[in-house]
Amino acid sequence: MRSMSLPSSRTRGRPARLDRARTVQTALDLLNESGLDALTMRRLAQAMDVQAGALYRYFAAKQDLLTAMAEHMVDGIADAAGPTGEGDWSERTARLARALRTALLAHRDGARVFAGTHATGPNTLGFADSLVGVLREAGFGDGDAARALYSVANFTVGHTLEEQAALAPGETGSVEGATLREAVTAGTYPHLAATLPVLTSTDFTAHFEFGLRLLLDGLRAVRT
Amino acid sequence: MRSMSLPSSRTRGRPARLDRARTVQTALDLLNESGLDALTMRRLAQAMDVQAGALYRYFAAKQDLLTAMAEHMVDGIADAAGPTGEGDWSERTARLARALRTALLAHRDGARVFAGTHATGPNTLGFADSLVGVLREAGFGDGDAARALYSVANFTVGHTLEEQAALAPGETGSVEGATLREAVTAGTYPHLAATLPVLTSTDFTAHFEFGLRLLLDGLRAVRT
DNA sequence: ACCTGAACACCGTTCAAGT
DNA sequence: ACCTGAACACCGTTCAAGT
């Protein structure tokens, strides 16, 4: 057969079993199945039918793989702003923040992976440019727009980190309900006792929307 | 001697070289010297002139040690609210948020340690009770006060995580200045290009105060 | 009661050697 | 060019045995 006797000029030898894209995809699948702590280079190699050392031809270190995973996770979120005119600046900023949270939630330990790396790929930079763009076009100054990006991004990542930690196996509720309830019933922490139903609520979307609204209302006040 | 034949009921045998308090303190010292990645049970044991296995008489797992470290880091921050009447609710809340950030900044990788654990000791709960108390006494509803705690805490931890990551060895600036500058000069990301001076600024206090102000202004709007 | 010594079951990373 | 095999220098954790 021609395909055996005349290998294509680009790919002499056997076709590579590995490449960056396939490795990142397999790593994200493994992350979803087993979580970040179980994502080892050896297990990933096993899932790709290869020895662990082979991965280092494509990623200089595990950290680089994690960064590529983080970048892949936030693919497309820049588009959440929508076209100019579709909603005012606060609604468009809210959509971007929600898209970031949703992207992180889409993968087990997604926020931990994202927070633990410093992705500077087109998806991450595109998101940043989009958010800053929405605010600049709405009349915000360059300084305020840049700082607003940090505020929204840091709050969103911080929130989702907590959210995924609370939802992880072994966690009762948002602040480990059992321990809280004990300490609180003992009479200390009267204010926590009074707000216990909300504190132990697992409606994280409501918590997120509350904080997001604070930031947007705050931005509205800054704008004038 | 009586002390040999009649060992005190609490401390027979040689005095223990280890105890929780001394171990946590040594671990925090080691953290400051070498960072979280270098803080291993074996190195900590070495610093205490003991075998690694001995640590497990006081901490069931490394995670428990890290939780105790996190709790110790935020000792006293609840007091930052000050007595009732010393500043209005927004100033008292700001002081609490700043105290949290300062406490995390006081230890290398402090935010990573705090975010990676779920301390429920008196320092952490005291801080939470204090912040919720400030808002409830100012007339905020229980639900809003509880959610405001999450917003402020998640933003503060998220911000400090970024701040300490940016300050870590090997990082140029806030968003890896070099890579950003390249991508930005290429013409893509026009909004990032325009705001580059602020984005790459290392004045993290200004960034933090901006976000904190957004949250407090947002809370002011919610209050009415 | 408190700690040692030694083991168990792993890690990330490197690199000569094979094909 | 791409991957194997094997090693290096570690990890967290457990637990019989010593004192």
UniProtKB/TrEMBL annotation, chains A, B:
Residues 40-59 bind DNA. Gene3D superfamilies: Homeodomain-like, Tetracycline Repressor, domain 2. The keyword Phosphoprotein does not apply. SUPFAM superfamilies: Homeodomain-like, Tetracyclin repressor-like, C-terminal domain. Keywords: DNA-binding, Repressor, Transcription, Transcription regulation. Coiled coil: none annotated. GO terms for biological process: negative regulation of DNA-templated transcription; response to antibiotic. This is TetR/AcrR family transcriptional regulator. It comes from Streptomyces coelicoflavus.
